[in-house]
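Handout, tutorial session.
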Amino acid sequence: MEVTNTFIPTAGTVGIFSMVTYFFLVVAAFAFLGTFIISLITPRISSPEQRNSLEPNSFILTTISTAIAGLTYYLIQSYYHDMLAEMATVSDANDRQTLIRESYNAIGQYRYIAWFITTPLLLVQLIALLRLPFNTYKRQLLGLIMATIFMVFASYIGHEQLSFDNEIETVPKLVWGLIALIDYVTIAFTLNKLWKEAGSQAHPAFRLSALTVAGTWGIYFIGYFLTLAPIDFNWIHVVFTITDLISLIGIGIVVYLVNSNRWQTNT
């Protein structure tokens, strides 16, 4: 549909699943914008028994992360909209799938650029819940952050293993994906080791938060490798979008509950 030369996608012109994908992309942009505004106006109430200097300020990281995610999803939905405008002129189903696949390879890079910033911020929020003395564990904590940055960057390099016509080059993508995956496993084992060392000192919210972060990162890796399979890449768009919402907003809610002393500890 066109209104004064402005294309407005509908299921009749681009198909129902593409419209569902577009729906989630726009909703994510709104949700992150809303969370950003809420995090700005919500009073920063810190629990009096907080021991880690990072923890009182960790909710600020939610403000930063959701601002970045909101801008990222605005760009993604905008470029996806442009792709739908072109799809409306294509009638062949195979050609439409090619367009979706090639556009995903271009549009998807914005997620990795955002993750390069938001993923380490998520990790810092997670580390704060361990309540470990920074000076004692400085080397391990800084190593975790650097490993997380490298994991995302390696995944981005893998995502960009494309031919001139934007088709995926399988072997190089697999290699970079495996490098990032090894890094992910190392991060998970290190976090688990630090959690055991922290013992009762760690906030009870750490376990749920760690499982959420590890689970969402795992989903990203599954989606990464599924791009090598002959599937509709709209599925990856939808799953990644829902996962981003869960990880960023979900962890933000946990941090807010901890900082406002609404998540009771066992001590």
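The second record follows below. Compare its token runs with those of the first.
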Amino acid sequence: MSCCSNPSQYQPSNPISDNDIVKAVNDAYSAKAKVGTTTTYAKNVAESFGYTEEELKSIPDEAHLGLSCGNPVATANIKEGEVVLDLGSSGGIDVFLAASKVGPTGQAIGLDMSTDMINLARKNANKQNLLPPRVSFVQTLLTEDLPVVSDSVDVILSNCVINLLPLAGKAKVLKEAHRVLKPGGRIVLDDIVAKEPLPENVRNDLSAYVGCISGAIELNEYKKLLEDAGFKNSLFVDTKSNLNVYYTAGSSTDKSTIGCCSPAPKSESVNAPPSFDANLWVASYQIYATKEGTPDPNAEKLETALLRSWDAYPRPQSTPAAVTADEIAKLVRDASKTPSDFAVIDVRRNDYAGGHVRGSHQHAAQTFYDNLSAFTEKFGKTNQVIFYCQSSNGRGPRCAAWYQDYLNQIGNEESTAYVLQGGIKGWLSKFGGQNDLIDRD
């Protein structure tokens, strides 16, 4: 069934679990990220929900996939220097528009559960040379704790996503939104709201859930979720948008017409015309609410609102081997060794003081991934590239793995990444008094 089909023609089905819902939504939108949509279709849908031609020209075509049911950036009153969080960022459309408003001193962060959507958004960001921490995309389930620092975000956006979560997930993400907002922070959500109770057979239809209808809740229930999350004085505005635009905006792709109130992702119903008017069952609303309190003008400005800065980058796939301090000491003391034989890389930054492996190069972990190409150009012909951080339990192994992944990707077999076992702590503990092995500031 498509989400805009007549619910009365379907027989009741067995209840679907929250896990079933999350998996179905993730599978469908991951497929959408891979297949994409036609530029004309995406543009027509976006303009129908308030995006201007100027806004759409300012971002990559692949950033908008015809999945919107509003334009939250247009009414969020985003200011320069603010931190903006987008829940369910898709190809990145609202993150990129927000980034243009917060400028180089602000942050725009997109969260999405689909790894394929995150990969697409990061690719789009690279096209515009938008890098973390200014623009970050992070893969995470919105039904779990968000990887964001408490009281760190000025504005939260979401565009036709909350309805896709199971009821418990809706409650969870709104509570998390309240947690991460600064006092006085605000949310602007565009979402689908049910006009009346939906039949159980519709509620339990996964394809209708993916199409944004089965997960829609009534206005009073939505307000109650916001109140329970801690938000006061929420405002719901019916945008009066025509949800049948998904059928009148032109052709999408042959196998990826997935969007708010679009036909369900089943081969037998893809691109089939709807047999029921979606506008009779659901409506597109813009939802506003604020977190009580006043922002602290003396609060420390965070480099990133993410709990873990490295979440903004791909998860490493390689597991570089460890080398002992004694093995590296032997290399450092061997006068016959040349720069092409080995290099030692210190990825510390703020904790860089206190001593280093003799002759090591500093390349801070925070910016390492963005500079992989230049780093490889410098060290790609070095046989052993050995990384370390404080204890070599986090940043060192992570950067080594990113380097090895990159070497594998480009087919470089001349260089190999390693990790200093025990990090600089172990090195200084073992060789602290041996000046031929230690560099000091």
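Points raised in discussion: The chain has a mean pLDDT of 87.
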